[in-house]
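User: Here's a structure from my thesis project, written as structure tokens. My advisor, Dr. K., wants to see whether a designed sequence matches the one we expressed. Can you design one independently, without my sequence as a hint?
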């Protein structure tokens, strides 16, 4: 194995491969930054270009673009409060407040370093523990996916802002949106209002763009200010921020492990990993009240978690031939086109290509660090664009991004409708985070519950299916702890304040 690893490292660092990976990383960052141009779309567009390449080189290009796109979503999330990819939604919670405080460079550098750390940790798991983790992923069936979604919904309390009730209302509204479309059992259309195009349901990306970008554009105009925020480059900010991020091993290690675990589960991915990691970091923080107001730990945890999912989503793909994410499904097509069959045979018959690809993911993360540090000084200038120019640019990209997903005008209408709803929701302090979380997890929860019910109807029984499987039991316990622990902590804090008041009296 050591020989294969060394061969893969040296082969991935050949001049040709380094040049192609650099170009792919830059392209991925651009794709991820622009709302609507997802990593899946970027990788899918790149696949035909790799036809004439050496198999290892083609796979390196696809993996590098995937890595760059996953990080690129943080740029727009931090600078204009519009996540370029669904995985960057959690990055907006503290990244954009840092921009408003005049620290966009600090947020961008933190996101970059955290992404690189998370990506490398996820790749090490892919390199050394792929088969074991793939076997664990196989034990996740429909009941486990249902309870994972329910556990994820308990995060709403962390995203609710000042009012838990309003957060729950936002989450419930997101769940309602997730129900639009064809019923998975009966095939009957629900809440389509006569529009046949809505039978497929609400696409996540147009809805996400609408909830985040359109309210932001309207609020920019309402503020009647020249720029988003005042920014002045500080001397030594790069070195200081890198050191500060590296000195948070507990945050990025915990988040990377969460991202690695969730990333290998089919149907979850970086968007769920970012939310879960953010909630856990906030839960264990001594300064919970600062989250959502520019806490740098919020950026670290979101970016390290969603970047770790890049490599971990490839674990079931390379070892079992089961893609763990939409991008992994496109990569499966790329593997087959180059005559490679995923599974044990890949590591036996094509070990050189397999290990070159895996080691190339580590090299691509290092390339992204270099490119990102160089590019940050240019990215940050986006907030220096006058708002009367920036607002129309964001609106145009929102429309183009929504339309380009499926070449559907209906997606543009969905984006605009979600944007208007999101704007008025913000007026009553209902944040977009819980709404988008409900939309993401609603689909996973419904599919898990419905498909599990069909299995139970064959004679297994609902109780046995949902409450006796070991992983289900673990997720149920975690769900109750996630609900009850914050309540207990708040009671202890009130009790401590009461005791302090008595002593002071």
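Assistant: Designed independently from the structure alone:
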């Amino acid at each position: 194995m050591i020989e294969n690893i060394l061969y893969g490292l040296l082969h991935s660092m050949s001049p040709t491969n380094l040049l192609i990976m650099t170009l792919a990383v830059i392209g991925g960052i651009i794709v991820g930054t622009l709302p609507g141009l997802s990593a899946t779309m970027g990788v899918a567009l790149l696949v035909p270009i790799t036809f004439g390449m050496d198999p290892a080189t083609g796979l390196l290009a696809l993996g590098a673009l995937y890595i760059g796109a996953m990080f690129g979503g943080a740029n727009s999330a931090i600078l204009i409060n519009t996540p370029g990819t669904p995985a960057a939604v959690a990055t907006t919670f503290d990244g954009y407040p840092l921009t408003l405080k005049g620290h966009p460079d600090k947020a961008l550098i933190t996101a970059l370093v955290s992404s690189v750390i998370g990506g490398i940790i996820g790749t090490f798991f892919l390199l050394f523990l792929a088969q074991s983790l793939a076997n664990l992923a196989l034990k996740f069936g429909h009941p486990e996916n249902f309870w994972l979604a329910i556990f994820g919904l308990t995060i709403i309390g962390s995203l609710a802002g000042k009012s838990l009730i309003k957060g729950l209302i936002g989450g419930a509204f997101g769940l309602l949106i997730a129900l639009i479309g064809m019923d998975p059992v009966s095939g009957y259309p629900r809440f389509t209002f006569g529009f046949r195009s809505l039978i497929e349901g609400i696409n996540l990306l147009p809805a996400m763009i609408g909830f985040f970008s359109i309210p932001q554009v309207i609020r920019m105009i309402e503020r009647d200010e020249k720029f988003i925020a005042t920014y002045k480059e500080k001397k030594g900010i790069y070195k200081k921020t890198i050191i500060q991020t590296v000195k948070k091993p507990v945050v990025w290690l915990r988040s990377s492990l969460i991202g690695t675990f969730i990333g290998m589960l089919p149907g979850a991915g970086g968007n769920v990993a970012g939310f879960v990691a953010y909630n856990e970091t906030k839960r264990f923080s001594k300064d919970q009240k600062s989250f959502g107001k520019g806490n740098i730990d919020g950026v670290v945890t979101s970016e390290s978690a969603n970047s770790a999912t890049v490599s971990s989503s490839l674990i079931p793909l390379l070892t079992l031939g089961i893609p763990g994410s939409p991008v992994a499904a496109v990569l499966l097509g790329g593997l087959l086109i180059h005559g490679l069959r995923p599974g044990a045979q890949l590591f036996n018959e094509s070990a050189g290509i397999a290990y070159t690809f895996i080691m190339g993911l580590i090299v691509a993360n290092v390339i992204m660090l270099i490119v990102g540090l160089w590019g940050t000084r240019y990215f940050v200038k986006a907030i220096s664009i006058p708002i009367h120019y920036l607002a129309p640019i964001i609106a145009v990209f929102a429309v183009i991004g929504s339309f380009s997903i499926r070449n559907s005008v209906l997606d543009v209408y969905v984006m605009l409708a979600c944007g208007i709803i999101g704007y008025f929701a913000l007026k009553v302090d209902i944040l977009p985070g819980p709404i988008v979380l409900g939309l993401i997890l609603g689909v996973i929860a419904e599919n898990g519950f419905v498909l599990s019910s069909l299995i139970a109807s064959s004679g297994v029984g609902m109780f046995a299916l949902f409450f006796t499987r070991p992983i289900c039991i673990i997720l149920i316990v975690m769900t109750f702890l996630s609900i009850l622990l914050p309540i207990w902590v708040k009671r202890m804090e009130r009790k401590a304040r009461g005791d302090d008041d008595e002593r002071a009296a």
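When you compare it with your expressed construct, this may help: The longest strand covers residues 181-182.
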